[in-house]
Specification:
Blueprint: H1 4-23, H2 33-109, E1 114-124, E2 132-135, E3 148-150, E4 155-162, E5 167-171, E6 178-183, E7 189-194, E8 202-208, E9 218-221, E10 233-242, E11 248-255, E12 264-271
Antiparallel strand pairs: 1-2, 1-12, 2-5, 3-4, 3-12, 4-5, 6-7, 6-9, 7-8, 8-11, 9-10, 10-11
Length: 283
């Protein structure tokens, strides 16, 4: 059974609820004094909470953004590395094309004197760096023993052994090498041979003692012996001395061709005019 007391309190509660609903209606012109006081007291706390919320949001965004930037930077570094490698390869190809073009120009200049084929150095004798090199041309390319080998700068040696796909060349700096040579200015003959010093120099021997030799004179092939055409530039005299027996002079000759830096060469396969190949003084 419901008591009057309970009904009374229920009516009071309903009245209070209706009053609060009226006071807090969204279209009312202003807040109640209690609402204003509560909002004013909570405002600082709300500001702090809002700042913390924005800081957290910014931190989360920064972490996500940094993660994305890290991945992007890695991709950019890889791309830069790849582009750098491509540039180096292009530069290497450019230099190779330039060297080959110079060889082809030299071959065209002397097409009335000899026929030749280009070849690349694929090996060196580690125990005789200035003695033997290996080329990537052989019997299948028409290469034969004793064929002369040159660059546009001058003579470098001759073929001494041939396989189907390769050829070994003895450089003029090898002590076993011998080239019929002469001084271009005076036409004085001699024999050019390598030295045992391993420094890349050669020497002109068996030059008569009464012959005038001077530093700076150019040495070319003489054509004697039949292996090398006449007039191929060899090198330049830098020093003169008397041989121990006192009957001849010896001249130290530095080759025009940079034998320690060879990469591509010309193998002379056919000599058309063995006696009129014009000297070019290392050019």
């Amino acid at each position: 059974m419901i008591s009057y007391r309970s009904v009374f309190f229920l009516l009071i509660l309903v009245g209070i609820t209706l009053g609060v609903m009226r006071l807090t209606h969204v279209e009312r012109p202003q807040l109640t004094p209690m609402e204003a006081a509560i909002k004013d007291s909570l405002a600082p706390i709300q500001g702090v909470l809002m700042g913390i919320s924005e800081t957290v949001n910014q931190s989360v965004y920064s972490v996500v953004a940094l993660g994305g930037l890290s991945g992007e930077n890695k991709e950019l570094r890889e791309e830069v590395s790849e582009l750098r490698g491509q540039l180096l390869l292009l530069e290497e190809l450019r230099q190779e094309n330039q060297r080959l073009r110079e060889l082809l120009d030299y071959r065209e200049q002397h097409e009335q004197n000899f026929r030749s084929t280009t070849a690349s150095i694929i090996g060196r004798d580690p125990g005789n760096w200035f003695g033997i090199i290996t080329l990537n041309k052989g019997e299948r390319d028409g290469i034969l023993k004793n064929m002369p080998v040159v660059t546009r700068a001058g003579l470098i040696g001759k073929v001494v052994a041939v396989s189907r796909n390769t050829a070994q060349v003895m450089l003029i700096t090898d002590p076993r090498s011998g080239v019929g040579a002469m001084v271009q200015e005076t036409r004085v003959p001699g024999v050019l041979e390598g030295t045992t010093s391993g420094g890349g120099a050669t020497r002109l021997i068996h030059v008569p003692k009464d012959t005038e030799l001077n530093a700076g004179q150019v040495v070319i092939t003489s054509g004697v012996g039949g292996t090398f055409p006449k007039g191929i530039p060899i090198g330049r005299i830098i020093d003169i001395s008397d041989e121990p027996a006192g009957l001849f002079k010896t001249a130290t000759v530095v080759p025009f061709a940079e034998l320690q830096r060879l990469e591509e060469v010309l193998i002379i396969t056919t000599v058309l005019n063995p006696d009129i190949l014009p000297p070019t003084e290392g050019g």
